[in-house]
């Protein structure tokens, strides 16, 4: 069994915040931010906006593109570090989409690498059998955990949701037995390329490479904060033998230059490793699509891999670093803008807190 990306969608909150807007609250400037990061605007959840609703909006667009009914979704993976419920938000998205068969829906936490991990997980589910249509959602609202007095971090992040829909594509013999045989056949036919450098033409995920390094957590984190609440209980609290507490998370803490160095070192290695596993080389890819954190990181990785600028996808000027949403958001824009075409091969890579990083070579 193989699997393919067959739809994408994205959504961002309405509120747009420019570099000049930020210069009104912290000591910074449009010039500093755009030269050091490439970012000019970001969209921020405000008022009654919810990440769950944003994710559902993006998911509807992906389902529409793929011509898949919500009732035919049989797995929802929400890749996020900022769920709207401690116990996860994926089931709420499933509910908002009205998936009547109660498909499994759960959250995956891997910061800015989350979407890639979700894609790889979806592929494993599909290849293992029993799952056909998997919604992989990358969504984050890091603005909720930013210290808006810290100019080193508050300029970087924006909120968004992006979706990739994976669909089973089986071998020719099995196609007629599939629930979505007609649809699959059409897609499958379009994807076959006699000149393809890839051996497994029936599969849209050619190779991947994923890593973590807990030792690097100190460079990028938002640790738990224990607030003692025993003062509210008076002396009664002590009878329990421990101070009752209510936990929350601190704001994002980051050593930017360490994260920068880590990304520029590890991401090219990871892409090369994923390409090698796929039996491909850099020259086989049509597009380089990295987590959108900093234009200088994107440029440095492209230079190391010798990918020319015209093959590099970048939209962070408009959205900032949207964490797990950045890859599907950029993919969606590139697909709908006619840049990425059916059959194109994309080297995608994520990196971020954990530390986590990884790559996947996919065919659109
Ligand atoms: N405006 C003006 N000056 C600033 C600002 C700002 N917004 N932020 C920092 N500065 C100052 C610093 O205070 C410092 O001043 P000093 O020299 O007087 O001490 C100077 O600018 C240089 O600071 P650096 O931190 O060394 O600047 P750098 O060139 O490293 O750029 C940046 C900082 C943009 C954060 C960069 O390091 C970066 O992008 N790192 C990667 C971040 C990243 O990719 N994070 C991924 C997160 S993904 C996830 O999982 C959440």
TrEMBL record:
Which residue intervals define the domain Beta-ketoacyl-[acyl-carrier-protein] synthase III N-terminal in the entry? 106-162
Any one Gene Ontology molecular-function term assigned to this protein's record: 3-oxoacyl-[acyl-carrier-protein] synthase activity
Gene Ontology terms, cellular component aspect?
chloroplast
**Keyword Transferase recorded:** yes
Q: Which UniProt keywords apply?
A: Fatty acid biosynthesis, Fatty acid metabolism, Lipid biosynthesis, Lipid metabolism, Transferase
Pathway connected to this protein: Lipid metabolism; fatty acid biosynthesis
Is Lipid biosynthesis included in the keywords of this UniProt record?
Answer: yes
Q: Which residues are in the Beta-ketoacyl-[acyl-carrier-protein] synthase III C-terminal domain? A: 275-364
Coiled-coil region list? none
**Record GO biological process:** fatty acid biosynthetic process
Instruction: State the similarity comment.
Output: Belongs to the thiolase-like superfamily. FabH family.
Return the protein name. Answer: Uncharacterized protein
Taxonomy of the source species: Eukaryota, Viridiplantae, Streptophyta, Embryophyta, Tracheophyta
């Amino acid at each position: 069994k193989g699997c393919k990306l067959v739809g994408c969608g994205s959504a961002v909150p309405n509120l747009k915040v420019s570099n000049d807007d930020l210069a009104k609250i912290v000591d910074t400037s449009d010039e500093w931010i755009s030269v050091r990061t490439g970012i000019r605007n970001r969209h921020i959840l405000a008022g009654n906006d919810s990440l769950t609703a944003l994710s559902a909006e993006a998911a509807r667009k992906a389902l529409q593109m793929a011509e898949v009914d919500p009732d035919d979704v049989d797995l929802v993976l929400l890749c996020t570090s900022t769920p709207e419920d401690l116990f996860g938000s994926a089931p709420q998205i499933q509910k908002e989409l009205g998936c009547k068969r109660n498909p499994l829906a759960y959250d995956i936490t891997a910061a800015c690498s989350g979407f890639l991990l979700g894609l790889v997980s979806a592929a494993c589910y599909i290849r293992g059998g029993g799952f056909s249509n998997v919604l992989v959602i990358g969504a984050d609202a890091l603005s909720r955990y930013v210290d808006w007095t810290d100019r080193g971090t508050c300029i970087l992040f924006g909120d968004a949701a992006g979706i990739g829909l994976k669909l089973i594509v089986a071998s020719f013999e099995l196609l007629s037995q599939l629930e979505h045989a007609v649809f699959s056949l059409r897609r499958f036919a379009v994807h076959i390329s006699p000149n393809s450098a890839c051996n497994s033409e029936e599969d849209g995920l050619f190779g991947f490479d994923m890593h973590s390094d807990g030792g690097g957590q100190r460079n990028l984190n938002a640790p738990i904060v224990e607030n003692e609440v025993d003062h509210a209980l008076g002396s009664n609290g002590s009878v329990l033998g421990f101070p009752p507490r209510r936990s929350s998370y601190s704001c994002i803490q980051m050593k930017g230059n360490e994260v920068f160095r880590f990304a520029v070192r590890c991401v090219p290695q990871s892409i090369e490793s994923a390409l090698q596993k796929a039996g491909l080389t850099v020259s086989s890819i049509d597009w380089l699509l990295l987590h959108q954190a900093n234009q200088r990181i994107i440029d440095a990785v492209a230079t190391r891999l010798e990918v020319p600028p015209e093959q590099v996808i970048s939209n962070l000027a408009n959205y900032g670093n949207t964490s797990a949403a950045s890859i599907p958001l950029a993919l969606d824009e590139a697909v709908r803008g006619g840049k990425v075409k059916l059959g194109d091969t994309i080297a995608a890579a994520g990196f971020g807190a954990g530390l986590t990083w990884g790559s996947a070579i996919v065919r659109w």
